[in-house]
Amino acid sequence: MGKEDIIKKGDLYFPGEELKKGAQLKDEAIYQKAAKDPVKFWEELAQDLKWSKKWEKGFSHDPPYFEWFKGGKINITQNALDENLKERANKPALIWIPEPIEEQARVLSYQELLREVNKFSNVLKKLGVKKGDRVGIYLPMVPEAIIAMLSCARIGAVHSVVFSAFSPAALKIRLQDTGAKILITADGYYRRGKIMNLKENADEGVKETEVEKVIVVKRAGNEIPWQEGRDLWWHELVKDESDQCQPEIMDSEDLLFLLATSGSTGHPKQIMHTCGGYAVQAKFTGKWIFDWHENDIFWCTADIGWITGHTYGVYSPLLNGITTLIFEGAPDWPEPDRWCQIVDKHQVTVFYTAPTAIRMFEKYGEDFLKKHKLDSLRILGSVGEIFDEAAWYWYFEKVGKRRCPIVDTWWQTESGGILISSLPGMGPFKPSFIGLPFPGVKIDILDNKGKSLGPDQQGNLVILPPFAPGFLRGVYKNSKKYLETYWKQYGKEIYFTSDAAYRDKAGLVRIVGRVDDVIKVAGHRITIGELESAIALHEDIIGCAVVGKPDEIKGEVPIAFVVSKKTEKPVEQLKKEVVEQVKKEIGPIVLPQEVYLVEDLPKTRSGKIMRRILKKLFTGEPLGDLSTLANPQSVEKIKKIVCG
Ligand code: WT7
Prior knowledge:
Blueprint: E1 6-9, E2 12-15, H1 17-22, H2 29-36, H3 38-46, E3 57-62, E4 65-70, E5 73-74, H4 76-88, E6 92-97, E7 106-109, H5 110-126, E8 134-138, H6 143-155, E9 158-161, H7 168-178, E10 182-186, E11 188-191, E12 194-197, H8 198-206, E13 213-217, E14 231-233, H9 234-238, E15 250-251, E16 255-261, E17 269-274, H10 275-289, E18 297-300, H11 307-319, E19 323-327, H12 338-346, E20 350-353, H13 355-363, H14 367-370, E21 379-383, H15 389-399, E22 406-409, E23 442-446, E24 459-464, E25 474-475, H16 479-486, E26 495-503, E27 509-514, E28 518-521, E29 524-527, H17 528-536, E30 541-551, E31 555-564, H18 571-585, E32 594-597, H19 611-619, H20 633-643
Helix pairs in contact: 2-3, 4-5, 4-11, 5-6, 7-8, 10-11, 13-15
The chain binds 5'-O-[(S)-butoxy(hydroxy)phosphoryl]adenosine (WT7).
């Protein structure tokens, strides 16, 4: 390489000359240009996509509702697949790495992927799926997950993916909320060398829902329960199907997908994303933030069950005609260097993961890294939770060898695509700061009264009109929740993110954390309410409070305080059952790390549980004035239990 790749100036890092020269974006004037007229800016980007009919209006606003590219007609799969056939028919669109080492990777070219999508689109049509119908997808990381999503999009059906590690109870709520009549699942999948029986979970989850047909991908070949007439094998359905299927022409504002996310209450919200705007934002945020060029191999480690998997595992790379890599297994199985092996073997150039994974690897020491070159990597990305300085440096030095820009990307399920990040060809990259808003995105940081705050002043991060084209258009069948969650704090024209943040003098944003009852556990978003309602279903539990405790690897972990009925059960047994209860209701992804059995929870005189005080037991902050509590003595007792 010779010349310096990354240049350090004070506490900032910048791309060196070589990096700059080759970058998609290198002229900072783009920020001013976009800020002057964001709608025009996004409209110019939209012209790069293939529309069956051009839109009439770029942005229309009827607060708190808005639309992008109204009147435009588009199909996202035509852009992501057909359009790439001209120049890239035989180029790999998708590389799939199974977990078992001895199993071969599966590579699908753009042409092959389109054929598979067309076949499965025809299957769905024959089963009666029509434009606007919701289809549930409960699949592990296998190519069929992507094929299924794209097939829905091709025929105008609305996909609603449920993370495969969610429990049957969590699947059921999501199926009920979307009213899906079809569920696509698999027999099983590999996780840490074991076969997980997904079909059993699916069978349990479809009970009391409207699901009429269950399509099953044969992945692991394990024994599964089968219901004749309802269950259908994927491979049998597609066998004789035609590989031609015309894309359904969609209105820009037609629904593309629903994805559940946690909010302030126990019940998840189904976030609505629409076709045109989402495609535009997905395409250009990926292209510019990850600086994709024709031969890039991009690996986004997020599961397709999350928005990151949707936008940057599937849609964005395909819209840009590059290769996306997905992996079935766990990051450190069978050895901590599994991910490194994949990077070297498949020559991954751009890598996108979450700080939790980085901190986990950091704990393993450096030896496992030394066996691997990692020299194909050009750019490293991070997402989902606060990226602390220590982890940032580890990623920068040990993984990127000080050669690769780090893009920390801030966004939400609601925003559909990235909103804040630095750009590789410009920088600056500043440890633990995200960067500037993406061109065309207007943000502010407000105090509780709505006053805009200056440098270093912490407040609430908000997004201002025209937001961004990929933003949510609503909460499915729940406009009240949409209004209350996002448009109540500052009125109907200012989107409230629920994140606290501040800016430095250069305007670089630093995220401080959520201000609502959401906790981020290993990047997974979960509400206190969801965990508490799960625990409350246990027959012996009569009161419970969950708080997030800072954790070195996962960022935060849930801690449960429970009050039980009089029971003969040994305490340890009860604690175990509480954890099991969460596993049953939600899944193994966010289990309480600790369960404390207490006599009483601190409450205000009106009966509100004061979680804030419980949280302070772990952060070391002073407990403050307890005199407003109805039962101040409860705090002392709990403190003894927790701190000994
Ligand atoms: C929340 C959204 C959309 C990506 C996956 C998460 C937190 C997200 C960052 C970041 C610090 C971050 C925020 C946000 N978050 N990215 N780069 N640095 N915090 O999506 O599950 O909808 O969660 O994740 O708190 O509000 P999500």
